[in-house]
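Hey,

Quick one before I head out. I ran the complex with thymidine-5'-diphosphate overnight. Inputs first:
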Amino acid sequence: MYIVFEGIDGAGKSTQINLLKEWLEANGFRVETLIEPTDSEVGKLIREILQRPDATSDRVQKTLGLLFAADRMFIMDKLEDKSKIFISDRSFISSLAYQEPAEWIEVLNRYAKKPDLLILLDLDVKKSVARTSGGDTFENEEFLTGVKENYLNLAENYEHQIIDANNGVNKVSSDIKKAVAPYLGICPDCIL
Ligand code: TYD
C-alpha cells in the first residue's frame, strides 16, 4: 500500500508520518517511509534551487517541475514491493499543487505511481507561515494560499482523507489513525 501525505509547508507531515509508522509497526505491519525531494543528486539540486529568491518565478517553477518529476522516478521501483506499507512525505500531487500548468505537470508525471490513500493535512496559511522558518521562498502567505486551495481541489481525484492540521499533535495523530484504520482492517478499538 502506498500512503501519501500532502499539505502546505509546516503542516506537520514528518512528525505525523513517524507517529503513524510507529503505530502501524506496533500493529504488525512492515513500513517504509519515503521523502520527496529525495536524497538523490537531483533532490540535492532541488533543495539548492528552493533557496533562490526567485523560486516562485515562472521560469524557476518550470525548472523545478522538471526536476521534481525526474527526482521521483528514483523511488518508483521500490513501490512495487507489496510486502510493505510505504508512507511518503509528498508525491507528484505536490507538483500539481505547487507548480503549473497542470496539464504539463500531469504529462511529466505520467509514470509516477498514484497513491492508494492520500492524507491531506489541511493547515491555515497563517499558521503555516508562523511555523516555518521562511527559509524557502515558497513559505509566503500569498503563494501558500493558492497551494492550499489547489490541494483541496486535487484531493477529490484520489482516495483521500482530509485531516484538520490546526489541532495539537496528539489529536491530529489520532485523527490520522482513525482515517487509516479501515483501509488496513485495524479494529477501531485498537487505536491508542
Ligand atoms: P518539504 O518536504 O516541505 O521540505 P522541508 O523539509 O524544507 O519542509 O518540501 C520542500 C519544498 O518543495 C516545499 O515547499 C514543497 C516543494 N515541492 C514542490 O513544489 N513540488 C514538488 O513536487 C515537491 C515534492 C515539493
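DSSP finds eight helices and five strands in the chain.

Talk tomorrow,
K.
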